[in-house]
Every structure is written in C-alpha cells, then in structure tokens.
Design a protein that fits this description.
mainly alpha
C-alpha cells in the first residue's frame, strides 16, 4: 500500500515535470533552429531577465516582486468584494424565490459579458484610478462566485431543513447550521474559479492608465518591443496564479475537513 502511494505521488510530480521540460526543449529548438528566433527569446534569456528583475527595477522604481505585490493587492481587493457580494447574491437567489425572480434575469444579462468589456464603463464611472481597476477585477470574479453559490443554495437538502425546524431551530439557526455548511463546498469551488479569473483580469485592469503592476510590465515590454520582458511578466502571472490556486485548495481542505470525514 505504501509503495503504491509512493509511486502515485512520484507520478504526480515527475509527469508534470517531464511535460514542463519538454515544453522548454521544444521552445529552445524552435528559437535556435527556425525563424521564430527572430521574434522570441530563448528560455535562458528569459530566465536571466527574470533573475535580473528580481533585484533591479522595471521602469523607474519597482522590482518584479514589488510589481507582483501591487497586482496581488489589487486582485485580493477586487476578489474579496466579489466574494462577499457573490455569496450574498447567490444565496439570496437560491433560497428566496421573489429575489430570484427579480435578480436572476438581470444576472443572466450580465453573466456572459467578459471583464475586458467593462473597461470603457469603468473609466467613465470611476475615472482611471484604483477604483476602476478594482471594478474590472471584481466583475472578473463576481459571476463565477454567484453561479456556484446559487447552485449550492438550490441543492440544500430540504429534509435537513425540516429536521432542524422540528428540533426547534429558528430560521437564522437553520441558515447557519444547515444552509451555509451545505453551500460551503460550492462556495469554495466558485471562489477558486473566481480568484483565477480575477487574476486574469488584472492585466486588463492594469491597462487602464497604470504605471505599476505585473500587467503593466507586459504592456511596457510591448511598447518597447522587449519580448523577454513580456515573457517575464507572463511567467510571473502564471506562477502567482498557480500559488493562489494552491492556496485556495489548501484552505478548502482545512475548512471543509468535515466533508472528507463524512466521505
């Protein structure tokens, strides 16, 4: 049993590593032996620039870690607002039919609109400051959190609600003891997707008259035709997005441990 688990863990580490190395090798071969090398830097050049930017500023003031922290602050601000609003709207639609009848048609109109499409309205409504960026990031995550929370609220076992009321629970007690715990797995699923879409939206948000942030690093590289800097920004976004997704999965395991025990 232990040997099989060790093999399984080794496979989950080695196979992705093999795929990653294969991508790097293909990248290096294409750049070295085809005309793509006129457009793209080698992986080694990108790595050197990545290390260089860890201690040297991109632009006038900030190093790459500082640009990442600025973007992370923006993402977490928009994500936290989207989470609170999305959970409230999702549970309200799922548990109260009058609210569902009023809000859901409006939500279904907003749902297919991508975050980038909100940029012109964000500028008109909020100017070109931090509020506009927060709004764009908020819209990137809000929809996914609402959709999953709504699904969780709709799938609450009504028999459990009946038992809670039979045992003398009030509506508030039933909400916190039955409805909310039943929704938690769905909420976390929506928050995981929502955090990823918020992180993707940061590039669009930082296109709105920004002079710092990892999205600006990519735009600045585009302005001076510096492909290595563009790749550094892309890699930084990918790594931070991976770390954020891993953090959300870790928090879900901690806060939803009761579900694993029940399974």
């Amino acid at each position: 049993m232990k040997k099989s688990s060790i093999k399984q863990k080794a496979g989950t580490i080695l196979l992705p590593a093999v795929g990653f190395v294969a991508i790097l090798v293909i990248w290096w071969l294409l750049v070295s032996f085809t005309r793509i090398g006129l457009l793209l830097p080698t992986p080694l050049e990108v790595l050197k620039r990545f290390i260089y930017f860890l201690g040297n500023p991109i632009g006038k003031a900030f190093t790459l870690p500082m640009h990442l922290l600025i973007s992370l602050r923006r993402v977490l601000t928009g994500f936290c607002i989207a989470s609170v609003a999305g959970i409230i709207v999702g549970i309200s639609m799922g548990r109260f039919k009058p609210i569902e009848a009023i809000v859901r048609p409006i939500f279904e109109l907003v749902r297919p609109i991508p975050g980038v499409a909100w940029i012109p309205l964000a500028i008109v409504w909020f100017g070109i400051g931090e509020t506009a960026k927060t709004f764009i990031i908020f819209m990137g995550g809000f929809v996914n959190i609402v959709v999953n929370t709504y699904a969780g609220a709709r799938h609450v076992d009504e028999r459990l609600m009946g038992v809670a009321y039979m045992l003398g629970a009030s509506k508030i007690q039933a909400f916190f003891r039955v409805v909310l715990p039943s929704c938690v797995p769905y909420i976390f699923a929506g928050m995981q997707v929502g955090l990823s879409t918020c992180w993707m939206a940061v590039l669009a948000a930082e296109m709105v008259s920004s002079f710092e942030g990892v999205g600006w690093v990519i735009i600045a590289g585009q302005d001076i035709n510096d492909m290595a800097q563009i790749f550094v920004g892309i890699i930084a976004i990918a790594v931070m997005g991976l770390l954020l997704a891993a953090f959300m999965r870790f928090m879900e395991r901690i806060l939803c441990r009761w579900r694993e025990r029940g399974a």
